[in-house]
Design brief:
There is one protein chain. The protein is mainly α. Helices cover 76% and strands 0% of the residues. The protein has helices at 2-17, 37-72, 78-104, 117-120, 122-136, 140-150, 152-161, 163-183, 186-203, 207-220, 224-240, 242-250, 259-282, 287-303. It is elongated. It starts with a helix and ends in a 12-residue tail after the last helix.
Length: 315
């Protein structure tokens, strides 16, 4: 993590000064970079939340022990209700912890079924996400609908409907066509295409321009509407395809696990995914949105000063 942070600081310095620093030698020590105050505060907040949740769990466990002891001592019937409520709280807390942890790793390193879902199912989830993006954003119907919503043809038609604009366009096109038909020959066209267009296109670096454009889009917040649309469509897809998510979660379960356990784990994972997507959709300051902003900013900075094979190409 320190190495990645040092690389980011170095890229920011190169963007500011316009200099290109030599890459560090293999085996060289990476200088220590202190965490920012924001990172320190976030870690402190995470520790506070974990301590608070653990304290609640221990408190409920203590209530359960005391209520069980009171019931066995013959005080009355009410300790039984308190013990049942405390037991339900402990079971719910452990189930929530297991469901959230099982998404990303194996709890306590144990090979429990239905755990480490994202690392083990990343290929299947990636294929499903690619299919979702292709069907909902890159299909012909969606692109045509967006172009119709922009109304390029109607705007151009309205502009050309004015006589002065139509006369101007007609005069310019007539002049250009007349000059082209007069002076152009096949050999001239071949020379222009071969010398002026082909060679320049082969030597043109795409990454710096794309990086600057992406930096401007991120700085102006133009990407947030796209993120809002992705979150909205992802939420709708999860709501409509509950069975698909359940099948993806429970499909790799071993045959000896009970079906009701598979179903319970699948339902818990589905609810957590739906909650995450809903929060990201409804909260403009969601941490995942901030992480996406930082990723796009770093990617644009990487492309701008020193193009890489992943950002652009040159002849």
């Amino acid at each position: 993590m320190q190495g990645r942070r040092a690389d980011q600081v170095e890229r920011m310095e190169r963007r500011t000064t316009g200099e290109t620093a030599a890459p560090p030698a293999r085996g060289a020590a990476v200088p220590f970079v202190a965490d920012s105050p924001l990172d320190v505060e976030r870690r402190r907040g995470v520790r506070r939340m974990k301590a608070f949740a653990t304290g609640l769990l221990l408190g409920v466990a203590l209530v359960y022990v005391l209520a069980t002891w009171a019931r066995s001592s013959g005080i009355g019937g009410w300790p039984g209700y308190v013990a049942a409520a405390a037991e339900a709280g402990m079971v719910g807390a452990l189930a929530d912890w297991f469901a959230v942890t099982a998404l990303f790793r194996r709890p306590m390193g144990l090979p429990i079924p239905h755990t480490a879902i994202i690392p083990t199912k990343k290929d299947q989830l990636g294929a499903s996400l690619g299919e979702f993006v292709g069907e909902n954003f890159l299909s012909g119907d969606v692109v045509r609908m967006r172009l119709r919503a922009v109304g390029i043809g109607s705007r151009l038609g309205t502009w050309l409907a004015e006589p002065e604009h139509a006369d101007r366009v007609t005069a310019e096109l007539a002049t250009a066509l007349r000059g082209a038909l007069t002076v152009l020959r096949d050999s001239d066209v071949q020379a222009v295409v071969g010398e002026a267009i082909t060679r320049r296109a082969d030597s043109q670096e795409i990454a710096p321009g794309l990086g600057k454009l992406l930096e401007r889009v991120v700085a102006d917040g133009g990407h947030r509407r796209a993120v809002d649309l992705v979150c909205l469509r992802a939420h709708d897809w999860l709501v409509e395809h509950n069975d698909s998510v359940m099948q993806a979660v429970t499909g790799g379960a071993p045959g000896w696990t009970p079906r009701f356990v598979d179903r319970k784990v699948g339902e818990r994972v589905y609810r957590e995914l739906l909650r995450f997507v809903t929060e990201m959709r409804d909260m403009p300051d969601h941490p995942a949105r901030g992480a996406l902003d930082r990723f796009l900013t770093d990617f644009a900075g990487t492309c701008s000063p020193t193009p890489t094979p992943g950002c652009g190409w040159s002849g």
